[in-house]
Amino acid sequence: MYTTKAAGRTLNVVVWGENRHEQIEPHVAALYPDGMHNTIKNGIDALLGDRVSVTTALLDDPEHGLSEEVLATTDVLTWWGHAAHDEVSDEVVLRVQRHVLSGMGLIVLHSGHWSKIFTTLMGTTCTLRWRSEHDRELVWTVNPSHPIAQGVPHPIEIPEQEMYGEQFDVPTPDELIFISSFSGGEVFRSGMTFTRGNGKIFYFSPGDQDFPVYHHPDIRRVIANSVEWAASATTRREIPVLLRYDTDDFFTGHGYDGPISAEAVGAALDAKSDAAAEAATTSGPTA
Amino acid sequence: MYTTKAAGRTLNVVVWGENRHEQIEPHVAALYPDGMHNTIKNGIDALLGDRVSVTTALLDDPEHGLSEEVLATTDVLTWWGHAAHDEVSDEVVLRVQRHVLSGMGLIVLHSGHWSKIFTTLMGTTCTLRWRSEHDRELVWTVNPSHPIAQGVPHPIEIPEQEMYGEQFDVPTPDELIFISSFSGGEVFRSGMTFTRGNGKIFYFSPGDQDFPVYHHPDIRRVIANSVEWAASATTRREIPVLLRYDTDDFFTGHGYDGPISAEAVGAALDAKSDAAAEAATTSGPTA
Amino acid sequence: MYTTKAAGRTLNVVVWGENRHEQIEPHVAALYPDGMHNTIKNGIDALLGDRVSVTTALLDDPEHGLSEEVLATTDVLTWWGHAAHDEVSDEVVLRVQRHVLSGMGLIVLHSGHWSKIFTTLMGTTCTLRWRSEHDRELVWTVNPSHPIAQGVPHPIEIPEQEMYGEQFDVPTPDELIFISSFSGGEVFRSGMTFTRGNGKIFYFSPGDQDFPVYHHPDIRRVIANSVEWAASATTRREIPVLLRYDTDDFFTGHGYDGPISAEAVGAALDAKSDAAAEAATTSGPTA
Amino acid sequence: MYTTKAAGRTLNVVVWGENRHEQIEPHVAALYPDGMHNTIKNGIDALLGDRVSVTTALLDDPEHGLSEEVLATTDVLTWWGHAAHDEVSDEVVLRVQRHVLSGMGLIVLHSGHWSKIFTTLMGTTCTLRWRSEHDRELVWTVNPSHPIAQGVPHPIEIPEQEMYGEQFDVPTPDELIFISSFSGGEVFRSGMTFTRGNGKIFYFSPGDQDFPVYHHPDIRRVIANSVEWAASATTRREIPVLLRYDTDDFFTGHGYDGPISAEAVGAALDAKSDAAAEAATTSGPTA
Hints:
Chains A, B, C, D: Residues 12-230 form the ThuA-like domain. The structure is a homotetramer of 287-residue chains. The first copy, chain A, is α/β, with parallel strands linked by helices. Chain A has eight helices and ten strands. The relative contact order of chain A is 0.15. Strand 5 of chain C pairs parallel with strand 10 of chain D.
């Protein structure tokens, strides 16, 4: 049985940042002097106040800042990466996947579309077309009653942005919330939700290291809305498991003992062994 | 630009079988004396005739029978596995995934829900509840105009079956076609489609090694329908890739050169080197 | 621009009831001595407390209790009807539709599937198969992280119920939350959401005049959850309209002047008039 | 039980046209000298050849050319209307709706978004934003393996078009196939499928009386693809109905006798009559 979300519970949010562009490229550092992760964190803090407790975690932290202990108490994780997707350890990716499937919310931002965690959860290449040439981006709402779309104009105007265009190779989303156009003429499904296991995922494309998009008040509003949306409706965190249920008992699941009984395997091996002893030249199918 | 499917083209279908239960368990061999894979193959042959060319591939074949050459000419692959999911090599799984994303159809049958290829494409645990106790299964159509649902009664009756029950941990399907009930009272979304990349996937749960389900005429009809449905609408096979497009050129994509220019990385390293020489005690951020 | 929902705002809920069976059939009156509408109201009150202000409206009230004034301040309307769908005036149906499209939530219960308001909003026949023979109904959750599914067991057990079975002729829902099985073997998509205009709709099938389903604590929990879910995320109520926008002005819509300019129509009529005067026998196309 | 579509069956297609602009506005007549309906018909004929038999029907024909006899043998109906939506009789609209729910395919083109038949089937206002100022439209494919998207470039370029922009007030589509951008910056979900009853519906926005869009080879290809897609997979035409099924008989439905037995109603009326005779002042509930 699920338990309802405690009213007024403070949500623990972790803003994960790759934090490489800011260290290498002066023009990025100029836009984000405290790092993009802190700009994103500040936006969430400013809009959600004491409804959230926000911390940051970085690629260069031990375990990328995403230990089992940290994730176990995280309600929503936001993810921005770009230049160093390959440096994220597979072990941490599988750990994050397990927590998402168990109910942790995940907000994947912009170039995070090509992160290991997003492609692992989607099962597709998550590729797209792109161009970084100062296109104007307009973000249009196509799902006006969705909680993530509240409090922003229609459209949101971003004076300069990297272009991301279709085809975007992701599964059909649960919900399509935003579609962007770019001054060059391309379109992009820029805000989409996905449910995976017990976890809620929101992908939101506006945002780039080369442009001050994470300072944009409407973009901050969407991210804050999505944090509240992605927080699990329950306080229990658990991954789906395969369980056997006896007839007429709907509530007591039993663990898995394997696909074939040990007796059957043993008898089969014995039989094969006997047969082999009798006729070593037999060329039948093997188990 | 896509090219339309050549009318009358023969579809190449590969029926993949684990072929272990049939070798180990006499009661399975009695139900499927030629192996489950040949029973499935025969059903497709009988219903689709010269519209298809069907072959089989087995776990114990070299490369599990799924070499690059085989997959490159396969229109639709059907997958049944159960006892030996772990023995399928990761290399072959990634190869099959690549071909699905490029446009090969995939039909995942029954216990294939827990196969590496299905969990990789879904991104979830693909777990469920189950019981093998001779439940009657009724397969109800909820999408009556779908091509996969044509030519079968409503409901399909399966006298004895393994029970598969909700919650089934898969992403929201593109289309829900069948819902099953079991005499014990459980329900299951037993026929669902998913699009991944350019590939079409159909999961269909009826079918088990312990029961003669793959001899059932209605189940054979659904599988045959799904093979035709999953065949790509195009004759071109290609995986989605990330490409850069110049402004006003929508048709000439350029390959990816990396997230940060070599000059920027070099300059940053030089600057850091100089700074380090000046003051070895500086404790700023590192790249 | 949308404004966010005021935190802590009390939701105005109207429980609409047909209130005929209770008057005519003693066994229904015995189950629901205050009418089904009051039983439903009491469940919402008990679970949502001061977060809601719940009133009832009945078929036999003036304007069925659904005047423009009432609807204008209603956040969520629940609808139960059965024997007298035809007695609901078309004018009130169109009024309710307009308010749903403008953002009012709507919860359609059980036999409300065949109400005028539901078929009008769905565009389909909303027919199904049924049998009232004391089937046990099990309600299984297939969307475990959805807010409507919180706080109830998996499955919900209803000892006796009318059977509703597939095919249920409704559009593909936005979200499938519950699937029911019946002891006779039928299945039904028993909990589904639909978005129409700015309004959110939840259809929930458990509940019948012949059984005490609306006294069932889990059913009451689902209905209460759905009331909170269906309340609009915004405080503004407005119906979508067709508007013309000048180039580069995304925010100032202009009203519609008709499909063809008055000048063009006038000129065409003049021309036709002249032509008619010249040759009355001309048999060309007419405007 | 459903019967499969006869291979090679010729599809009967009816192209419905309002045929008013062509009569009134010389610039429209110049673009479409035979009427828009014939241009659309010719495109389907040219691409599908002897796989279809295409006729036209016009607003000014008796019964708008859509008699019961015509619709009964129509596999797919295309609909273009604009200036005279209100002149379409409600009787014909309900007749077309019935045939769609029974399995006839429907292709709604451009300004048909505001037709009675489309708003009736959708249940929403079907409004949008618009501007007729020679915008360039680009039509991007977001569902590349869909049969309707085959054989066209990505994107389709339309040099001049009326702008249609979001928010487009339609229900969430079953499938989103195309998204358009306009040179003014707006976006529009320009190709969407909907299932209603046993019928398949495709809405496609490119096309206008003021521009030669229906002469565009890619637009003609999409319309031809959609005609083949929308044709029913079955040869049987039937509307969903409400039927009662006895326990353990899944295949014999019984007609509906009304919600309350005649005996119960009679008894209740008798009882009320008696009570009224006894005490005329009683102010209890009324039936």
